[in-house]
Amino acid sequence: MAALSVEFGNLVQIKKQLISVIVLCKERGLLHSAKWASELAFALDPLPKDELPPPPPFTEEDAQDLDTLTLAKSYFDLKEYDRAAFFLKDCCSQKAYFLYMYSRYLSGEKKKDDETVDTLGPLEKGQVRNEALRELRVELSKKHASGELDGFTLYLYGVVLRKLDLLKEAVEVFVEAIYALPLHWGAWLELSSLVNNIEMLKSLSLAECWMKDFFMAHMYTELQMIKEALQKYQNLIEVGFSKSTYIISQIAVAYHNIRDIDQALAMFNELREQDPCRIDNMDTFSNLLYVKNMKPELSYLAHNLVEIDKYRVETCCVIGNYYSLRSQHEKAALYFQRALKLNPRCLGAWTLMGHEYMEMKNTSAAIQAYRHAIEVNKRDYRAWYGLGQTYEILKMPFYCLYYYRKAHQLRPNDSRMLVALGESYDKLSQHVEAKKCYWRAYSVGDVEKMALLKLAKLNEQLNESDDAAQSYMLYIRDIYSCGEQLEHAEVSTALRYLGQYFFKNKLYEEASLCAQRCCDYNESREEGKALQRQIAQVRDQVETPTTDLFTPLANNNTTPVRRITSLNLGSFTP
């Protein structure tokens, strides 16, 4: 783990830089970057009057454009982008030029979004494009070639390139924008959306600035390197950002990504205490409440957000989750559609809508929704996993395998992806690969406690009775150690198999113990009693010593099955 920038030793200087960049962003209508910097500045101690930074430099060109720029900015703030661009077209200052180009870009985006909502359904694959993009690219590329673009206009040029799917050029321009203006968070954030893996991240030559630490922490979260992300955020808290709601929210999202639900809920509750009217990230909070089946809390959150702003994307997603938890899937899908009308690039809404269509057995609509999610963010493992599940329902195992592999690449230590991969291999009769996946799922920490069971059943199907017995024993030990045996119906299946296995191997003590445990479950009670009667008939015969049972058994396949010591069910009695 790399140490934090030495600049964190001077928080007063960082505070001054944040105050300066807030002013610059506000002047240019970059409200999200201004908001991010403002939240970070708020987390630091206030500066005395004589230490406040001076206003930004004011050139002769700025003075000439002042009246026009003031008028155009008022139109821009009211979203009259064409009107703002008309008045700015003859201005010559850098600030006015950026606002002129940005107004044209936003005008095109607004028209595209309006046309999309008016003419297309929520799942239609439209060819609606921002018509201004090509013109903007031509004009900005000329200025770029002659070195006339400042940090903000470079950022805009990068956004235009990304929208035109010129991703390699966009990455280069965003890196250039960061060097020109390292304090602009928007450029870092745009760059993060184009970094697909850790190798690409390491290959980037980035400006050495304290902002880089926030970027790296964000990237670690996005790339599912949660341990590294949490360490970075902890370091940032320790150097003086302990009151930052941004960092608290990012830590909560990180815990959500590794399914540490209790920790994530604790962080979100802390966030809500500090910032009760916050809507950002509340859709992620609602996902956690949904998973924990916390209906009253989810209902309260939904009502609370409606009171604050019912036309926010996050609010619609929270209400959608609320209806989904109540099994009102049509209503849930309707609210996710509303979220997408407000923001067609809302990743969470596309994925959640895919889930709802799956619940409604509308597989074609689910596939379209998941594909849209992947278009928005190729790193969204939930969409890849959802596509795998959808094709599984359609009984298309080759497609399943492709999508589950993609999900596994994004979440290599998620047991659910590995179990799904194993099932796909099993259906394609690639049994060696299936067994490897199940064992790997168990090794990384099987959250659903199904990997060993599936491995045992596959061994059983392939008549590998010794391996099946070992897998079942590990499974039972795992379930009993968690204290979940009475809730896990499949324990009876394992006990039934082991009882018969021990009986066939003349290990009557172990067989008797399994038979007794079988009687604890309705579905295996009769088999348990029958086995006890069989054991009773041969009890007076000489029993084979039990010491050899748990020595390593002959294993003809390559599955790395771990051998265990004597199975002691008695020690795990409920």
Q: How far apart lie the N and C ends? A: 44 Å
Largest sheet report: none
Q: Using the alpha-carbon principal axes, give the shape.
A: elongated
Note the total helix count: 29
Low-confidence runs of at least 5 consecutive residues: 546-566, 568-574
Overall pLDDT metric: 87
N-to-C order of helices and strands: HHHHHHHHHHHHHHHHHHHHHHHHHHHHH
Structural class of the secondary structure composition?
mainly alpha
* Percentage beta strand: under 5%
Give a nutshell description of this structure.
The chain has 574 residues and is mainly alpha-helical. The protein has helices spanning 11-27, 31-42, 60-77, 81-88, 94-119, 133-145, 151-163, 167-180, 185-192, 198-203, 211-222, 226-241, 245-257, 261-274, 282-291, 295-309, 313-325, 329-342, 347-359, 363-376, 381-393, 397-410, 415-427, 431-443, 451-461, 465-481, 490-504, 508-518, 525-538. Helix content is 68%, strand content 0%.
Molecular structure report:
- Residues 546-566 and 568-574 have low confidence and may be disordered.
- The protein contains 29 helices and no strands.
- Helix 3 packs antiparallel against helix 4 (81-88) and helix 22 packs antiparallel against helix 23 (415-427).
- The protein is mainly alpha-helical and 574 residues long.
- The chain has helices at residues 11-27, 31-42, 60-77, 81-88, 94-119, 133-145, 151-163, 167-180, 185-192, 198-203, 211-222, 226-241, 245-257, 261-274, 282-291, 295-309, 313-325, 329-342, 347-359, 363-376, 381-393, 397-410, 415-427, 431-443, 451-461, 465-481, 490-504, 508-518, 525-538.
- It is 68% helix and 0% strand.
- The longest helix has 26 residues, at 94-119.
